[in-house]
Amino acid sequence: MSAKLALRVSARGLARAIRLVAPLALAAFGAGCHSSEAAVIQQAPPAPPQGEVWLTQQQVKDAKIEVSPLTPRNVDDTILTSGTIALDDQRTGHVFSPVTGRVVSIIGGLGERVAKGAPLAVIESPDIGNAVSDVHKAEADLLTAEHDLKRKKTLYEQKAGSPADVEAANDTYRRAKAEVERARQKEVLLRVGNADTVTQRYTLPSPVDGEILLRNINPGIEVQGQYSGGATQELFTIGELDRVWILGDLYEMDFARVHVGSPAKVSVVAYSGEVFKGTVDWVASALDPGTRTAKVRCTFDNPGKRLRPMMYATVQISVDQETALAIPRNALLRLGDQRVVFVEVAEEAGIVHFRRAVVDVDEGESSPWLVVRKGLEAGQKVVTNGVILLSQGS
């Protein structure tokens, strides 16, 4: 066979071999690809169920997720209410003028400390002369009535008068005697303020020791007397600010839970983040028919006199403590109308399983612990930090 013929035969055999082997090679290659895909599918981890989040230990560490077992705790329940700062009435004096007249001079200035009986202002008033005159007139009427009574008794004893005349004279005498007592009492009230019958001036005295907190008069103005029957105005307020009252409102549902001696805390807008501590010293015995609330009064020390009368305040009153299953406030998450927490349920092959749980808790406005009513059991591991991150993965 020539060399050219041998080369032709070899080429034909190689082509035939390729046609026979190629399908087998493709089939083998396809089978190999399918095996690789199956291996990849088998190696991928399963997806977590709805409401669960699976994380590796490193992911838990990086996210700073903290878990704490659910245990009974001493929960200090509190009642939150609004209040108004007021002066301690037992240490406060409200000064009114007992006479009608014109203010001559002001002695006590705002912010000054005064002692009980110290002069505050001088008022020139005709009431002083009238009071003295009323006493003299009443004494004269009493003397006249006494003489008339003696005369009527003498005539009656001599059979020259009737019993009715004696009774009428006796009644007149008693009325005159009562009028003298009234006039003298009024004169005594004026003399307490160092009334000068010559100059017709009355000096207003301070009723208590304290600081002048309010002054409503100026020299030259006319003031109305307390006993004149007209509308009177408070001229001075004397008091102490080292201890103040907080007057708040209690709703009917909380009325029975607050007692005298209960601890209380107050905060005001003026001193953000600062808390003043005091105690409840009085609870009203009845509810207001209009607001259906009861007044509660708390006493607070006021160092530096920073709490001022008529400031609005937020009051937290501690009520009876209880021991119950409770979670920290930052463990609770709101999803729509549900309140949920995350609980660690398992750990398998380095994967930590967290499950979302719907709970019913008592959300006290100011308590750091929330009492669990339903949804959790003692011993369960509740996520206390990193709840927001878990909610994004569930």
Uncertain stretches: 1-42
* Number of helices, counting only DSSP H or I runs of 4 residues or more: 5
Helicity level: 25-40%
Termini Cα gap: 81 Å
What's the CATH architecture name of the domain at 52-75 and 322-393? Beta Barrel
The total strand number stands at 24
**Radius of gyration, CA atoms, in whole angstroms:** 47 Å
What's the rounded overall pLDDT mean?
81
Could you please say which CATH topology of the domain at 52-75 and 322-393 applies here?
Answer: conserved putative lor/sdh protein from methanococcus maripaludis s2 fold
Strand content: 35-45%
Structural class: alpha+beta
N-to-C SSE string, H for helix and E for strand: HEHEEEEEEEHHEEEEEEEEEEEEEEEEH
Largest sheet: 6 strands, antiparallel
Looking at the structure, what is the overall shape? elongated
CATH class of the domain at 52-75 and 322-393: Mainly Beta
Secondary structure layout plus pairing:
Layout: H1 3-43, E1 52-56, H2 57-62, E2 66-69, E3 72-75, E4 78-87, E5 93-95, E6 101-106, E7 113-114, E8 119-124, H3 127-157, H4 163-192, E9 201-205, E10 210-215, E11 222-223, E12 236-239, E13 243-251, E14 263-267, E15 276-283, E16 293-301, E17 312-318, E18 322-328, E19 333-335, E20 338-348, E21 351-358, E22 360-362, E23 369-374, E24 381-385, H5 387-393
Antiparallel strand pairs: 1-21, 2-24, 3-18, 4-13, 4-17, 5-12, 6-8, 6-11, 7-10, 8-9, 10-12, 13-16, 14-15, 14-17, 15-16, 18-23, 19-20, 20-21, 20-24, 22-23
Helix pairs in contact: 3-4
